[in-house]
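Appendix B, record 7
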Amino acid sequence: MKLVRYESNGKINFGVLAADDQINIIEGNIFCDDYVVSDKYVSLNDVKLLSPCQPSKAVCIGLNYHDHAKEMNLELPAEPLIFLKPSSALNHPGGAIEYPAISQNLHYEAELAIVIKKPARKVAAEDANQYILGYTCANDVTARDLQLHDGQWTRGKSFDTFLPLGPCINTDLDPHNTNIKLYLNGEVKQSSNTSNLIFKVPELLAFVSQVMTLYPGDVILTGTTSGVGPMQVGDTVIVEVEGIGRLHNTVVKG
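Structure tokens (predicted):
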């Protein structure tokens, strides 16, 4: 299923996206097993798509693609490199990415995001799939100059609007053989496949959950591919993940 969260007539609901751009309305919460997909529907064109989940935190993985490590001329990490984005960074499909006034080098980073289904603490890798609701597109927006200046990543990764997610959660996706691309003003800037992941999804969930409890709706961003680069005010950026769809955002002056 492709699960969406949307606003219609001032109310926020979950639904299932159908092939004909219709949304079957869900009764209940997608993070509970007792939700029901009703026969009621609304048109995708008549609603505002929101981020498909509302994470309490986004746990991000640095340097997790073989092609990106080669591009940066860096040795492969011995274990996952993790950092956080706050919930206040959340952004929606079609939302504006604000270019901070204190930055002069804003970058895109296309990523596949894991969406957590239920509380996960000290999960074994072989049990990881039990805790995963599905997958969505993410853009790990980064003020690269601030990241490099600080020597650690919190400020450069955490501005408001720096966590676009969407447009849907695919509950039936192979996370280890999926094409991922990024378009900047229609031009392909990143193009790879999740088969190039250094640490696979079960390893990532197990590693992170040994450190911190993951809650329903939390996301793990699995890392970006080769081809990262700058964005400017006025640019349109699209993250495309095969089987999920396209996450559109524009860059505005912050």
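Remarks on this record: The longest strand covers residues 245-253. The mean pLDDT is 96.
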